[in-house]
Design goal:
Blueprint lengths: L1 E6 L6 H13 L4 E6 L13 H12 L5 E3 L2 H4 L6 H12 L5 E6 H5 L7 H7 L1 E5 L11 H6 L4 H5 L6 E4 L8 H9 L10 H10 L5
Parallel strand pairs: 1-2, 1-4, 2-3, 4-5, 5-6
Length: about 210
């Protein structure tokens, strides 16, 4: 199975990496594609440039053979819709390869507002990670129908399953990191050392 982890990664941080690592182990994923978005449709535009955010992802995952930086959304014009990314991956990998879209509980709770969200569920499984600052809401009927706690069910089909997994509670957010950097407070240990050094060298997130 191949995992897909999207986001603005402005910047990528330890909570992104640890949660994704735990999902990869729980589901025995062969690889995880980290895909920075160019133009996120549901939030303000990133502070760092596309090239800077891709560079930070590459630095963060350089030592993990299972993690791969994928720049397809940065090369595509228009909004970075997840459904378009999954269709692109399907075109490359075929219809039978199990794909797992990894997202946090906060993103999942707004999932039905995503562009063509129902099509997304036909293109990939959903693996939802816990977050210490969010409380799960009752599942809607469509989610109840998809939910499973058996990882083998994901392996035996290409898409359409919903899997919840508890991950290490790390209340770290990119927003907080940017604010602390703006206020000249240390962001060390909230993200990999290589990303920390890159942010300082590029003078990112300072007004």
């Amino acid at each position: 199975m191949i995992g897909v982890r999207g986001g603005t990664f402005d910047p990528i941080h330890t909570a992104h990496l640890r949660a994704t690592q735990e999902v990869a182990e729980a589901l025995s994923l062969s690889q995880v594609r980290f895909i920075p978005g160019k133009l996120p449709p549901h939030r303000s535009q990133p502070d760092a440039t596309a090239d800077q955010r891709l560079a930070m992802v590459e630095l963060a995952i350089a030592s993990n053979e299972r993690f791969i930086a994928d720049d397809r959304e940065l090369r595509r014009e228009g909004y970075s819709y997840t459904v378009d990314t999954l269709r692109s991956l399907r075109h490359e990998l075929g219809e039978s390869e199990p794909l797992v879209l990894i997202l946090g509980l906060d993103a999942f709770q707004g999932f039905t507002s995503w562009h063509e969200w129902e099509a997304i569920t036909t293109l990939a499984h959903l693996a939802v990670t816990s977050r210490p600052d969010y409380t799960a809401q009752p599942l809607q009927a469509w989610a109840q129908a998809m939910q499973t706690d058996n990882a083998e069910e994901l392996r035996n089909s290409p898409a359409s399953k919903l899997f919840f997994t508890d991950t290490t509670a790390l209340a770290i957010s990119a927003t907080d990191i940017r604010h602390q950097q703006q206020e000249q407070r240390s962001i060390r240990y909230l993200l990999p050392d290589a990303v920390y050094d890159y942010i300082q060298h590029q003078n990112l997130y300072r007004k």
